[in-house]
Amino acid sequence: MRVAASGLNHLDLWLRQGQPRPRQLPMVPGCDAAGVVAAVGEGVSAWQPGDEVVVNPSLACGRCPQCLADRSVFCPQWGIMGEHYWGSHGQWVVVGEANLVAKPPASSWEEAGSYGLCGLTAYRMLRRARLAAGETLLVVGAGGGVSSAALMLGLRMGARVFATSRQAGKRQRAVALGAEEAFASEGEGPFPVQADVVVDSAGAPTWERSVRSLRPGGRLAVCGATGGGRAQLNLPRLFFGQHEVIGSTMGTFREFAEMTSLLPGRLPVVVDAVFDLADYPAALSRLQSGAQFGKVVLRHPA
Ligand SMILES: [Zn+2]
Predict the structure, then answer these.
(1) How far, CA to CA in Å, does 135 sit from each of 35, 138, 139, 160?
(2) If you measure from the C-alpha of residue 101 to the centroid of ligand 1, how many angstroms do you get, rounded to a whole number?
(3) Ligand 1 center to residue 257 CA distance, Å?
């Protein structure tokens, strides 16, 4: 496949720090991509050269009981392109046919090439948290790839969406995208809203406030710990509130197809900035700075 655009993820930053250590070097990072099928291998029937496609970065064996039950996230051989295997920040990439979906025609290359990992993660998380129309969703730390995807998906699912950020500009952006209100992330006590579902990928810094913002019966979904990985849980609050804490990461192949099917109806992918492939270091710096809202994307030479 010739890559037209590939998206950055926090995984790019972790990988650069050797977390995890690549199985072999050299190693091309990059989880997300959209592009054009250039050639097909023996036995490929789903695609032909010229097809415009999007990569699902999930890798699984496709044969074990978990895979056959559409629970590929629990496959013993489960992995992520760009983490465990050669990734998408190159002009060409080899991908299994099961890892492609057709590019939504209304999406730009930059949108199509950057929604994969974060969109999938946000979609599975909200699905597992059983977010329903009319419920209240609080997205903590709006601005990151998963949180901006959760915000857009939550709106699309008919929820009332609220957001938090440390930065005033990001709070304004969240409201401009459709959040009812956005609050400062710092402070004590619950956020000024009681939510059915709270999505928190910051971890330690916001954990206490997130838990205290749950309604009775509320669900706290965790898919990251960018600000620290250890938190305390007040057990009486958990059981008296009948709360659930849900850990979630990535998603299944069916969830990827479902999430992609939402894009033609213009589920917007929030693209923060586009860099040329050769400017990958500058794109990494943008991600590291934490100033971005949405996805940082690489545009590849034609
Ligand atoms: Zn498997």
Answers:
(1) 37, 10, 13, 6
(2) 19
(3) 18
What pLDDT, on the 0 to 100 scale, is given for residue 302? Answer: 85
Q: Specify the residue for token string 């903590």.
A: 140
Contact 164, 139 (CB under 8 A): yes
CB 147 within 8 A of CB 125: no
Q: What is the mean pLDDT of residues 115-119?
A: 94
Dist. CA 127 → ligand 1 center (Å): 22
Same domain, 140 and 239: yes
Convert 277-301 to b/e letters by CB count within 10 Å (16 or more is b). beebeebbebbeeeebbbbbbbbbe
Distance from the CA of 130 to the center of ligand 1, in angstroms? Answer: 25
Counting residues of the chain whose pLDDT is more than 70, the rounded percentage is: 100
124 part of a folded domain: no
Distance of CA 126 from the midpoint of ligand 1 (Å)? 24
Q: How far is the CA of 253 from the centre of ligand 1 (A)?
A: 12
Q: How far is the CA of 236 from the centre of ligand 1 (A)?
A: 39
Ligand 1 center from residue 144 Cα (angstroms): 30
The three-state secondary structure class of 189 is: coil
Regarding whether 265 and 212 lie in a shared domain, the answer is no
Distance 15 CA to ligand 1 centre (A): 24
pLDDT at 19: 85
Question: How many domains does the chain contain in total?
Answer: 2
More confident residue, 237 or 265: 237
pLDDT at 262: 86
Q: Which domain holds residue 186?
A: 130-247
